[in-house]
Design goal:
alpha+beta, Arc Repressor Mutant, subunit A, 19% strand
Length: 95
């Protein structure tokens, strides 16, 4: 189930492609807020080109909605993502 706060979040998510990528990452996240789908998987699930997906991930990282980590010995196609929570009252990113 999609949380209402994600759909209503116009503070950190301005582009439709960012929202799609955010939703894909949320689908894959575990209880610890981390996930590691490949760039190819994110782009396919979000129905975006690889380039559009890269731009969306960049914007989500710049807006501090996500953190990205490289895995040792892996290509940049296989990164770990941590999704940050939003403070609904103040519309700030926590974490």
């Amino acid at each position: 189930m999609i949380e209402n706060e994600i759909i209503d979040d116009t503070y950190t998510i301005e582009h439709a492609s960012d929202l799609l990528v955010d939703l894909v990452l949320l689908r894959f996240q575990g209880q610890n807020k981390y996930c590691w789908p490949s760039l190819k998987t994110i782009a396919e699930k979000a129905r975006l080109s690889r380039r559009e997906c890269c731009y969306a991930l960049q914007r989500l990282e710049q807006s501090r909605r996500i953190d990205r980590f490289s895995r040792p010995g892996m290509s940049t196609e296989n990164q770990v993502y941590r999704i940050k929570e939003t403070d609904k009252e103040n519309e700030k990113i926590i974490g």
